[in-house]
Amino acid sequence: MTDPILTVQNLNKSFGALKATDNVTLDLRAGEIHALIGPNGAGKSTLIAQITGALPPDSGNVGFLGRDISGLSTAERARAGMARTFQISALAMDYTVLQNAVLGALGARGGVFQMLRPVMRNKALLETAHQALDTVGLSDHAHKRTADLSHGQRRQLEVAVALTLAPKVFLMDEPMAGLGSEGSAQLITLLDRLRHQAPILLIEHDMDAVFALADRISVLVYGQIIATGTVDEIRANPAVRQAYLGEEDA
Ligand SMILES: Nc1ncnc2c1ncn2[C@@H]1O[C@H](COP(=O)(O)OP(=O)(O)OP(=O)(O)O)[C@@H](O)[C@H]1O
Asked: How far apart are CA 63 and CA 238, in angstroms?
């Protein structure tokens, strides 16, 4: 088996007496979607924040592409190919879809935005942007104002902006949130394809999406991973049913 792209080893984080991350170990392999599920407050966002570098762990390591990146800043991790999406929408609503993608490509190259017009004439940036829009299926909407897109199309644009970074992994925090059935179905189709470009660590409450997409699922409860396995293994796991899935039946 090839080495994992991303590894989290024995990560710990406490807020006062609360152990939000309790000795968490997991990995993300090439080509897979690894879903991280768990009840509200289980520590999913706290874990992602430690992976991206936004929050320092108390102890433990994060490895990325074979090296320990525990000492790197958020920006350094992003430049190394760690793309995080969906927590906060960073799209400029008054700009066109293409302009947002071009600005993403500019940021990915470490460029600083000063004037839109010269940026929009840069052939390399335009090519990267068009390619990303093509991948997510938004080419026909390139010249639309972002504010005029549907909610689901904005999520697709956020993926396109992340793609301009040429990511090696995607960390996605509840991408299905707020989407209707049509938007969810489109995003599921997109993520299904995207895993081959870069593996996805997916935090998601929408269990239909998780069961449709995940190669593996890890279940986090009170900061601890209580199980990792395939969809079938997780569905059949009594501890998971009791701690988490059972809640939904109730
Ligand atoms: N900065 C902080 N200071 C103190 N406690 C925090 C802080 N951040 C998170 N927590 C606590 O840590 C626990 C885990 O929170 P976290 O947001 O990671 O959970 P989550 O699984 O992402 O939840 P949700 O599904 O609701 O987003 C919660 O009890 C939360 O209140």
From this structure: 31
Task: Assign residue 188 the CATH number of its domain.
Answer: 3.40.50.300
Q: Which of 109, 135, 166 is the last residue of a domain?
A: 166
Helices and strands per DSSP (H, E), number in the chain? 11, 10
Q: Within this chain, do residues 250 and 128 fall inside the same structural domain, yes or no?
A: no
Domain shared by 104 and 33, yes or no: no
Minimal-distance CA residue to ligand 1 atom 16: 43
Q: Which residues contact 237 (CB under 8 A, 6 or more apart)?
A: 219, 227, 229
Question: Which of 13, 14, 15, when mutated, tests ligand 1's pocket best, judged by the most ligand atoms within 8 Å of its CB?
Answer: 15
Please tell me the residue having the least CA distance from ligand 1 atom 25.
40
Q: Is the ipTM of this complex over 0.90?
A: yes
Q: How far is the CA of 125 from the centre of ligand 1 (A)?
A: 38
Rounded distance from Cα 121 to ligand 1 centre (Å): 43
Among the three residues 166, 192, 208, which one is the final residue of a domain in this structure?
166
Q: pLDDT (tens digit, 9 = 90+) per residue, 16-58?
A: 999 999 999 999 999 999 999 999 999 999 999 999 999 999 9
